Structures
1.
Amino acid sequence: MKNIFSIALGILVLSSGTSVYAGSCGGGDHSHPSKEKMAMQIFEKADINNDGFITLEEHDAAKLSKYGTKFGAYDTDKDKLISKNEYMATFKRHHGDGSKGA
């Protein structure tokens, strides 16, 4: 009985330690990019020809619909191009303003 209790206690201690470690993102002195910075990185990666706009073809090639917003929702002025301003405004509407708790 004492053996079973020792094993159970050991498992409990080990599992709680890994949970704390997993939640801390590995510890250390580092930070994560803000939502806004991540959105800008996605925009820049999708803008294949670096002209400051995302076309429907670039949008589809980058598979941006997987983020839950279709091309037409970003293209608010309906010129068949998504500008950085359109992208960021739509991103903020759908995902919050980038502040904590949004």
2.
Amino acid sequence: MSRRVLLAALFGVLAWVGPLRAQTNDPSFRVVNNTPNVINEVYASPSNERSWGQDRLGTEVIAPGGLHIVRLPADGNCNYDVRIVYQGGSAEERRNLNTCQMVDLVLGGGAAPPPRTAGPQGGGNRAQPGSQQQGNPSFNLVNQSGRVIEEFYASPSAQQNWGPDRLGDEIVQPGATFAVRLPQGDCNYDIRVVWQGGQSQERRNVNMCALTNYTVR
């Protein structure tokens, strides 16, 4: 009798531990909006991917004080990059988050997020003291040119070469958007767009930290 009781207890423990271990491999998490701003979009993509993917909110928004559960596939991947876009266009990003070990992604503590859409007079674009502006230069490339973009280069203005094609093996179709991820730091970039057929366009000394979308027409 005691042996049966012991086996039953053992199976009960295994039945409880099994779901618990499965939960630790689940990258899903809650976005908690403690800012005074409405969150319009939430992106969560594996850190090794180049694109932000789909807006995880769909047609919903997260009001100040609200929360939203972001469901992600339990496929063994735990490292995610997260991008939050607020009403008005300001955005913030979190990189290389282990979301399997995270229940809540809490945004703000009553303070507004740093804006990224302010112009030269706006201030608050995450510049740091010093002669060279610092911040988050990542942005969305929006193709409204009516032509296929085959290559896209973005390199710090102080750099002597264009560096890698930011699209990799991908292209940007007319009307499409591509998330260009750049390292935190320098804000001033030179931009080069190459369309299908070889025609190109360049812009110099663009303050990418002040942009959410870079539209090519």
3.
Amino acid sequence: MIALFLVSAIFAILCYRYDPKSPSLRWVVFLLICSSLAGLSRAIIESFIPALNKNDMNFDLLNTFLYGLRIFTGFVSIYFCPYGILMHAVVYSGRFTSKVIRTLKYILLIPIPFMVDTTVYVPDIVPDFDSMLYWAVPYICIACIIHIYAYMTEKDEKKKKSRFITLSLMFPVILTALILNYIVRAFNSSNQIWRYVVFFLIISFFIFIWKALGSGSLNGIKLRYEREAREKTSKAVTSGTSLLNHSIKNQIYKINSSLQIIQPHSHNLDASCQKAVEIINKSSNHLIEMVDRMQSQTQEIQVKKSNCDLSELIDETLNYVQKEIEAKGITVEKVYEPNIYAYCDSTHTKEVFLNIIKNSIESMDRSGNIRIVITKGTGNQITVSFTDDGSGISEENLRHVTEPFFTTKGRRGTNFGLGLHYCYDVMLKSNGNLHIESELNKGTTVTLTFPLKG
């Protein structure tokens, strides 16, 4: 049972470390704490107390403390576990509103206080497994049904795969706990077959580590190392380009100041010198424009969120590039669900849309199609997808497209390879997500996920 205590405790720490803000993950941590307490509870009577007796350290005060700890950990682990299993299913499914989740969080606790009176505490804790047949078993069964329903109705293939991994890890542990720990012990409380649950938990633990390290995400968890590295890169880019921009601007202003002195007397110069002055003037203005554009795409993003009509923002963005669309003979197909509002920054979000649409336009030589779809996703999410049949992106380049200064277009004009990096950062700051799927010479789909307010 010490193994159960240690594995569950380590598992809980790892999960919490990955993403402490994830609501579904917090319930996983809650479950693992219950499991860890169950291991500690059994370890007290099977390992700690016998070891103390063997070494003549069984003091009355210490025995009283260990007995109290055994009762507390045993009570919490056995009664709160079904509650945690159901609450995790409710939250992770994404099918319930925040208000319903808050209500269920309190309502589902109702049976537990009644267990205080029906539990036997002397000479050792004996949980009321008979009563748990009528509430704990249904809790776990309902949780399994919610998980299966959420998986079957999931439209996003990436999320569906993540749900499948989650179910493949959790179901063996949940079902063995249901049968061996709650149903079998209701008919024979002294039956020790429930100990096999530990093996399933340990197996799930190692599969979790393997999958997490291999794919970087699990159960809504994203390994934070990549994100932290990305944030460090962004900060380095921001500070570095700010310093560079400042230095370049200072030199350009010196050039412009000198030009202002020369220009009133340019009529005294020959034609070639006048042409040179004109070129210097245009070049300095172009440099300032490029520096300003680079600075706007690398400076720290500050989002001011409000409820925004996404269809309206997209239509406004399309108006900006209407001439380019018409010039290339591109067809834009719009599929909008009515009355879709997202909680985001309207200015930055329009800039994100503009970057994505411009990329689609630039990927097509002549004609082509851009399909824009706005849908209400699962739970409190909205998805916006942009699909084009342009040149696409190679598999090698696809993994780098959101990195700063990476570009597949060549270093021309004011293209710095910062567009998708900016888009990614805006979505990150908006508590959303950006996902890109592409195949060379076939097209690209960019999917944005936005949160709903509350």
4.
Amino acid sequence: MSATTVASLFLALFCLRSIAAGQKNVDIVVLKYEGLGYSETVPVKEKYYFFSFCLCSQKTPDPERSASCNCASDVRGKKASDSIPRALFSASCIHNSNPLKCLTTGFKSVQDDRRLLYVKVDIDSRTLTSPSWQVIPNNPQKTSSKITAYTRSGDIRLDYVVFSSKNKEALSQKSKRFNRIKEFERKAKKTSLTWKKNRSGVGNTLHQIKDYLASKSNAQALKPLSADFDLDAFRSMITQSHNRYRSMHRVRPFEYDQTIERSAQQWADHLADQEACLKHDPMRRYGENLFFFGGSMFPPAEAIAESVTKSFYIEGNGYNYNGFRPVEIHRVGHFTQMIWKASERLGVGVAIRKSSGQKSGSCLPNKGLFLIYVVVKYDPPGNVLSRDQFLANILPPAGVQ
């Protein structure tokens, strides 16, 4: 059995340079797109997507030929074969625009009245969008948009962020936090659990938790994909267990949120589809804790739920509630997100699949087993890396100073 947890993250944005009054610089960062379906890519699987953007002061059928528009250079996406079922780009592209890894473009010194944002999508020399140029929302936060296209689904879905230099003051303070958060992400460690057969209590260490899972699996083995393993009950138990720990720290219980669950479920399904080691959802709208586990049979849902939350909570052993050391956050990130006072809602995603037995990562078992991926997302996200935030949001248990 192998199980892993990964600490939660919070995403901050960045600021742009200042320019002359009445003008602005604008950057566009594409975070995800969904275009052609699998069968549609066969004749163009080695061809690249291309994205064109223009900013205009008035509507026009052809922005590239209009004097009322500024158009950015065309930017190349991924190959069609690498964009199935969707193309994803790291949220770090918002801060560091690496042309080899990111899908970004920009406008220099655009007049303030040019606010209509047009997009056109091509693959090789073929225009996919219909009509060719279409207006999409121009918002200073992550936006999801559908544009009509010559695809089997009838549209192309686009997730993107638009940054203007007019956002500078509001974003500048967040930029500093982003750098610290990226350092945290690089240092975040993954803890592996392996199967043993001894103890019956959940325990207070990872070794004791793995023994607990093994003993429960031996005593009350369930077929993972059968109706005996109740996913709805599992989600409820995860929530109840979170709230039991939160009550110990005198913070309000989480409310369960279906919207957050959908986001968590999408990422759990993605990890299971890829049969992947744990990695974070690049669309980091929420705080996130992850858990992974594998075995030929599963213990009852209650045992796994209790083990998931206990593995998060034991990171708080010896935690200093009167101080803040960012370099140690990678050791306690699950715990601090779990009891973060300002976080109010959570959702749980669960995906179970039969392993192919082809080991594609160090975290995966060598032989075919059932794998369960658990994604817990939190809103508002916790672990905001500042001393004031941690002292205000991480409260000691009753009776602890």
